[in-house]
Automatic annotation (TrEMBL):
<protein>
    <recommendedName>
        <fullName>Oxidoreductase</fullName>
    </recommendedName>
</protein>
<dbReference type="InterPro" id="IPR055170">
    <property type="entry name" value="GFO_IDH_MocA-like_dom"/>
</dbReference>
<dbReference type="InterPro" id="IPR036291">
    <property type="entry name" value="NAD(P)-bd_dom_sf"/>
</dbReference>
<dbReference type="InterPro" id="IPR051450">
    <property type="entry name" value="Gfo/Idh/MocA_Oxidoreductases"/>
</dbReference>
<dbReference type="Pfam" id="PF01408">
    <property type="entry name" value="GFO_IDH_MocA"/>
</dbReference>
<feature type="domain" description="Gfo/Idh/MocA-like oxidoreductase N-terminal">
    <location>
        <begin position="5"/>
        <end position="130"/>
    </location>
</feature>
<dbReference type="InterPro" id="IPR000683">
    <property type="entry name" value="Gfo/Idh/MocA-like_OxRdtase_N"/>
</dbReference>
<dbReference type="Pfam" id="PF22725">
    <property type="entry name" value="GFO_IDH_MocA_C3"/>
</dbReference>
<feature type="domain" description="GFO/IDH/MocA-like oxidoreductase">
    <location>
        <begin position="142"/>
        <end position="250"/>
    </location>
</feature>
<dbReference type="GO" id="GO:0000166">
    <property type="term" value="F:nucleotide binding"/>
</dbReference>
Length: 327
């Protein structure tokens, strides 16, 4: 059994840099968490980050193979471009490293489910970083829904928008929709029975490079879900979830971590203690590795999310509603 989480962060882009900072902070708080190495293909980027964080150059590497060969590293956190996720993850699994894999875990469901199975066969922890599962506002929301105080769930609206330069060669469905799709599953324990997607490439003018999209999903029991995605909305960055039920409406701001309730009998804010979701994810990963237990957010959920994303893209490309399952 592993006595410590000795991790290498793979990729030092925007998110990878945040992860490096969080792993360093975690290592100061817990003796059983250690950031061993930082990997990137661009050594100049590594040196810039090391200088900024006062890290020794010995912690830097441009060789992924060296990381996989090292006995003193038992885990990797992969935060590289989406198209590299599968190759890096399957190599780590074959090297018997535990893995946190950023979303989407792969660009096809076949490859995503392959990662799940190979991780099982090699007895390694594979945690897909659906970070909002660690968000306290959503945890409180899930508890409220599970208590049944609001009666039947009618519909949900999720808005994931911001104004930014569209990421190069990125598909907004695979890049931005994984979180909303996963949140819906987290809150309802259900997957869409059918989906419809539509989107436009206003800036780049190319199919497959849409900068905005609307998604409608139908869950079992006639629960409807509407998701809005945008990289071209000039308003403030929004990560919002609105839930309309039989007895009231819940309004969740996942960034501010607030939950508001509107009903006939009450109107107000539910107390939520905001948390550092990245830190809590790191702690959860470490605990699962040290105790050799599967993560709460199963890798199968990550693979199913990719499967749903494929169906949304199919709908967008055909203009038709796509059925995912019956019954």
């Amino acid at each position: 059994m592993d006595k410590a989480l000795n991790v290498a962060v793979i990729g030092t882009g925007y998110w990878g840099t945040k992860l490096v900072r969080e792993y360093l902070a975690a290592s100061e708080e817990r003796e059983d968490i250690n950031l061993k190495t930082i990997y990137d293909v661009d050594f100049n980027r590594l040196k810039t980050l090391a200088k900024e964080l006062s890290l020794p150059e010995s912690m830097l590497t441009t060789s992924y193979e060296d990381i996989l060969d090292r006995d003193d590293i038992n885990a990797v956190h992969i935060a590289t471009p989406n198209e590299t996720h599968y190759e890096l993850a399957i190599r780590a699994i074959n090297a018997h490293k535990h893995i946190v894999l950023e979303k989407p875990m792969a660009l096809s469901s076949r490859r995503a489910f392959r990662l799940v199975r190979e991780a099982e066969k090699n007895n390694v922890i594979l945690l897909v970083d659906h970070i909002f599962r660690f968000n306290n506002a959503l945890k409180v929301t899930k508890e409220l829904l599970e208590r049944g105080e609001f009666g039947n769930l009618y519909y949900m609206t999720l808005k994931w928008s911001a104004y930014l330069e569209p990421p190069k060669n990125r598909d907004i469905i695979f890049d931005l929709a994984p979180h909303p799709i996963d949140i819906v599953n987290y809150l309802t324990e259900e997957w869409p029975a059918r989906v419809y997607g539509n989107g436009k490439s206003y800036i780049r003018g190319k199919a497959g490079l849409e900068e905005m999209a609307f998604i409608i999903a139908e869950l079992p029991d006639d629960v409807l879900v509407n998701i809005e995605l945008s990289w071209i909305d000039y308003g403030k960055k929004t990560r919002a979830v609105n839930i309309v039920t039989e007895k009231g409406t819940l309004v969740i701001d996942t960034l501010a971590q607030t939950v508001k309730i509107y009903s006939d009998s009450q109107e107000g804010e539910i107390p939520v203690i905001p948390n550092n979701t990245i830190r809590d994810m790191i702690y959860h990963f470490a605990d699962r590795v040290l105790n050799n237990e599967p993560p709460l957010n199963s890798a199968t959920v990550g693979a199913m999310t990719v499967f749903v994303l494929e169906k949304i893209r199919e709908s967008l490309e055909t203009g038709q509603t796509v059925e995912i399952f019956k019954g």
